[in-house]
């Protein structure tokens, strides 16, 4: 029996599901010091959580393009040894994912982190099996725009996840930066923003986010409203009317 289209929720990773807890910014600072490059302050380093790493190193930190591959190599070495272990799952996320799956929703990750590393990080936190598909950027993070194999950004990654999901019903993106909002819009999706991530004040609203939530429980309720009555009924059974 065909139960009709199945709704889907696509999640960003860092700043949405997992708190890097200094694992990203600390690694970038370490890599810059190794390369004898200036290390910017915390406000600038926090802006590096969200964009593609190579793009952020050039456009935000000001690393000369010829040095980008070496900076990335130093960063990834530090991240593998120390950074991943520093990360933490945000409160309520495992429960949220379980409730969405129980409500019949398909789940995906769409991140600008390299896809293999995203899978490793999610497995490290016991979350990988919660998702039907995990999509990320190219393994070679040093690729720059115009080079063969370069993946354009969040819109392409979200599109790849949607293509894998196939004939799903209504879908929505969840993220913490303007890249998530813009990438979702490019694929015809709305985006719910999370307040616990790395967006500067007003960034998500300026990008046209559908709404911003403060907790995982609020996110569950917002997703239920966006996806329609079937998910709303499942959520109401667990938490009361939404």
UniProtKB/TrEMBL annotation:
Pfam families: HAD_2. It comes from the Bacteria. InterPro entries: HAD-like_hydrolase_sf, HAD-like_sf, HAD_2, HAD_sf, PGP-like_dom2. GO terms for cellular component: cytosol. One of its GO terms (molecular function) is protein tyrosine kinase activity. Gene3D superfamilies: HAD superfamily/HAD-like, Putative phosphatase, domain 2. PANTHER family: 5'-NUCLEOTIDASE, PHOSPHOGLYCOLATE PHOSPHATASE. This is Haloacid dehalogenase. It comes from Arthrobacter livingstonensis.
């Amino acid at each position: 029996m065909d139960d009709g289209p199945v709704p889907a929720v696509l999640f960003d990773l860092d700043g949405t599901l997992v708190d890097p807890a200094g694992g990203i910014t600390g690694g970038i600072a370490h890599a810059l010091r190794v390369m004898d490059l200036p290390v910017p302050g915390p406000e600038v380093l926090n802006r590096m959580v969200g964009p593609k790493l190579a793009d952020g190193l050039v456009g935000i930190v000001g690393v000369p393009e010829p040095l980008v591959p070496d900076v990335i190599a130093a960063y990834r070495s530090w991240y593998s040894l120390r950074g991943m272990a520093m990360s933490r799952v945000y409160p309520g996320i495992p429960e949220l994912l379980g409730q969405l799956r129980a409500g019949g929703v398909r789940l995906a990750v769409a991140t600008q982190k390299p896809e293999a590393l995203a899978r490793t990080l999610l497995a490290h936190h016991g979350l990988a099996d919660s998702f039907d598909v995990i999509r990320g950027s190219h393994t070679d993070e040093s690729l720059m725009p115009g080079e063969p194999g370069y993946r354009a950004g969040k819109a392409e990654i979200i599109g790849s996840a949607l293509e894998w999901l196939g004939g799903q019903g209504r879908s929505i993106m969840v993220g913490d930066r303007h890249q998530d909002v813009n990438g979702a819009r490019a694929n015809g999706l709305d985006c719910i923003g999370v307040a616990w991530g790395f967006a500067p004040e007003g960034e998500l609203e300026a990008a046209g986010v559908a709404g911003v939530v403060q907790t995982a429980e609020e996110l569950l309720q917002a997703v239920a409203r966006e996806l329609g009555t079937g998910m709303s009924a499942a959520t109401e059974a667990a938490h009361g009317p939404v």
